[in-house]
Amino acid sequence: MLPLLQGLFNGVSIGSVLLIAALGLAIVFGLMGVINLAHGELMMLGAYSTFVVQNGFKILGEPWSSIYIFAALPVAFIVAALVGLALERGAIRFLYGRPLETLLATWGVSLILRQFVRSANWPLLAGLSLLVVLFFGAWVILTRVLSPEQWRSRRLVLLLTNLGVSLGLAITTAALLWQTLPDDWVRPWFGPRNVDVTAPAWLRGGIPIGTFQLPYARIFIIVLTVLCLVGMYWFLNASSWGLRIRAVTQNRDMSACLGIDTGRVDALTFALGSGLAGVAGVAIALLGSVGPNTGQNYIVDTFMVVVVGGVGNLLGTIIAALVIGSFTFIIGSGAIALLLSNAEAPAALVEFFNFFATTSMAKVMVFAAIIAFLQFRPAGIFPPKGRTAEL
Q1: Residues in contact with 134: Cβ distance below 8 Å, sequence separation at least 6, in sequence order
Q2: Residue 93: closest CA among 332, 269, 250, 351
Q3: pTM, 2 dp
Q4: Topology of the domain comprising 2-118+206-381
Q5: Is there a contact between 19 and 222 (Cβ–Cβ < 8 Å)?
Q6: E strands of 184-336, at which residues?
Q7: Tell me: the pLDDT tens digits for 319-363?
């Protein structure tokens, strides 16, 4: 039973990571119906933020390097939330009600973010910063100088001209910096290889139970998930903005008629969901190395959690995350096959579970079970009710 208990504990910790990520995705998907394929890359940004904060605190030395994780959590949340807010304000808000275009746009953003992490250096950062300042600065000036009639009649031409000029100046500046700066300033910050995040000393080791131990890092992830759940429940049920979010989720048109700024609610919701993805990235960083494709390892499982739990349902998301994470790890670790072998189960049954006793094959088995489950309950464990179910 010890391997089964160890697999169950490790599966719950993996499920906790999925739960943090799925919380944000469930809110965004439930409120706006947006399938955000860049959600995994927001988790990746949170993981890289943890790596950067860790290196910064190492310079300060002890005791600061032992508590860097507490600074990494808000930094990862803010970084991912700002990127998510920019994504919603810059692209997604123009694509509401067009799911295919939104799907393609977020997929393109995910590719851009992965390549940005591989190539990011000081010249690239300077060029992007100059592009943002020039483009949006000119946009603000034009909207203030021109009358509403002039702006509407020339909007497309002005925006294209502004984008062309800003992009040209930004590319020229980045190219000049690339040629003039020393190699240390031009070298990519992260590159295509994975980077390692070292857990603080107090998160190493674990609680011994028999022949195995419960790692402190995984216990920390479970506690972090519980705190995120409590915080989200309080925010959605005890704050004015949480009330607005629930109102818009129930009936967007009626909420707008009652004076709720649905556009601002959408932006806040997307930023909040993205910030939770960043927090999930901190948890991922404690479990293994971090690379440009880190988010892709979790995005499919996260969507499965949202679908199986029921779109926008908090309790369903919790149950689905823990069940999917636990079963994937238990089957993939071979704990079930070992337990059946010790119980002298039929050889065919033992061989069946031995065949799926790898991480990739365990996911295949879990996905097959999910497909079968959705045949009977296509709306998930807790299907939406009321007006949301009618839309």
Answers
A1: 162, 165, 166, 169, 170
A2: 269
A3: 0.85
A4: ABC transporter involved in vitamin B12 uptake, BtuC (1.10.3470)
A5: no
A6: 206-209, 212-215
A7: 888 888 888 888 877 777 777 777 777 778 778 878 877 777 888
